[in-house]
Amino acid sequence: MDRKLETPKVKDILVTKVIAFRPDFTSFDAIRNFNEHRISTAPVVNEQNEVVGYLSESDCIKCLSNCLFHDETRYRTIDNIMSKKVAIAENDWDMFELESFFISNHLRSAPVVDSENHLLGIVTRRDALKALQNCMEGREDYKREIKTPVELNMKERIKMIVGRR
After folding, report:
1. Across the chain, what does the average pLDDT equal?
2. pTM value?
């Protein structure tokens, strides 16, 4: 039996509908969009859609903490808080090269760009995991049932504990 596994490439799994920011956005613009779109990172692009930075929740938390607790206004735009050294994922990497890249750079996502640094999309660890799941489910010998996770409502448990005091 031939068990050769064809692993998808980054270009096969990258997300092309991307939430991106411009350098002149405020940190509050970014925070609102992170929360609204339920994302944790985003590329920062100039008017030509070239990647000029990358912004994370951590960048925003640090900024917001300084603004709230130290009444600072020096970080008005994300240009001041974004990472300007951007780790780029390559279009032709397979999943294993991508995961090695994520691990060695301590990342969970990365932009993918063309040869002129224009944003093509973004790829995440979740995208890689989903692609590997699809590969596994496509194998003939993958016949076992997937168990359903336990769903817990901890609010009810907390109410019970607090009510006993």
Report:
1. 86
2. 0.76
**Angle formed by the axes of helices 57-70 and 27-37, nearest 10°:** 130
For the stretch 26-46, pLDDT in tens is 988 999 999 999 999 999 999
**161 burial level (CB within 10 Å; 0-12, 13-18, 19+):** exposed
Predicted confidence (pLDDT) at residue 135 exceeds the cutoff of 70: yes
Q: How far is residue 145's CA from residue 58's CA, in Å, rounded to a whole number?
A: 38
The count of C-alpha atoms lying within 13 angstroms of the C-alpha of 115, restricted to the half-sphere facing its C-beta, is: 0
**DSSP assignment letter at 7:** P
Residue 56's beta-bridge partner residues? 41
Q: 63 is written with which tokens?
A: 């900024």
Could you give the CA distance from residue 160 to residue 165 in angstroms, rounded to a whole number? 9
Question: Which domains, ranges and CATH numbers included, belong to the chain?
Answer: 10-140 (3.10.580.10)
Contact 22, 44 (CB under 8 A): yes
E-strand spans in the chain? 41-45, 51-56, 109-113, 119-124
